[in-house]
């Protein structure tokens, strides 16, 4: 029984792939209080190469295209280039009203890490991934504070 567990664990370890995520998003959630004009999110590049970060907010539909998303928030800047070891403050602004005043509303903050193109090594094949970080954004009206 013990050898079967060890064998299963070994097989899982052999199947693990390496990922090089360099975009760090500060915090585990964003809370947008109605009484404040904005919320801020810290992003930084912990990698060794520059990267592009694209941010947007949605209502939870992961498959929605960016031009189809209708949310009462805007992010500035929406796309930023981050040099290695550098950071940026991203602002979330409310641009529309009409949300419930008696309860919190849930949205999703998305940050997409777009790595630079890798140089091909002697005609070899390269697979690149753009990694997305999602975290909850809560809109908190004055009545809930």
TrEMBL record:
Gene3D superfamilies: Immunoglobulins (2.60.40.10). Residues 1-21 form the signal peptide. InterPro entries: Ig-like_fold (IPR013783), PapD-like_sf (IPR008962), Periplasmic_pilus_chap (IPR050643), Pili_assmbl_chaperone_bac (IPR001829), Pili_assmbl_chaperone_N (IPR016147). Residues 24-143 form the Pili assembly chaperone N-terminal domain. GO terms for cellular component: outer membrane-bounded periplasmic space. Transmembrane segments: none annotated. Keywords: Signal. The keyword Cytoplasm does not apply. This is Fimbria/pilus periplasmic chaperone. It comes from Diaphorobacter aerolatus.
């Amino acid at each position: 029984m013990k050898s079967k567990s060890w064998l299963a664990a070994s097989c899982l370890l052999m199947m693990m792939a390496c990922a090089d995520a360099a975009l760090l998003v500060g915090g585990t959630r964003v809370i947008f209080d109605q009484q404040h004009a904005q919320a801020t999110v810290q992003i930084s590049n912990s990698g060794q190469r520059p990267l592009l970060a694209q941010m947007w907010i949605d209502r939870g539909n992961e498959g929605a295209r960016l031009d189809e998303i209708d949310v009462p928030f805007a992010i500035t800047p929406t796309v930023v280039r981050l040099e290695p070891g550098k950071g940026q403050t991203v602002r979330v602004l409310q641009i529309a009203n009409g949300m419930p005043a008696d309860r919190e509303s849930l949205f999703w903050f998305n940050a997409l890490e777009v790595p630079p193109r890798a140089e091909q090594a002697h005609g070899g094949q390269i697979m690149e991934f753009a990694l997305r970080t999602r975290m909850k954004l809560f809109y908190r009206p004055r009545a809930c504070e």
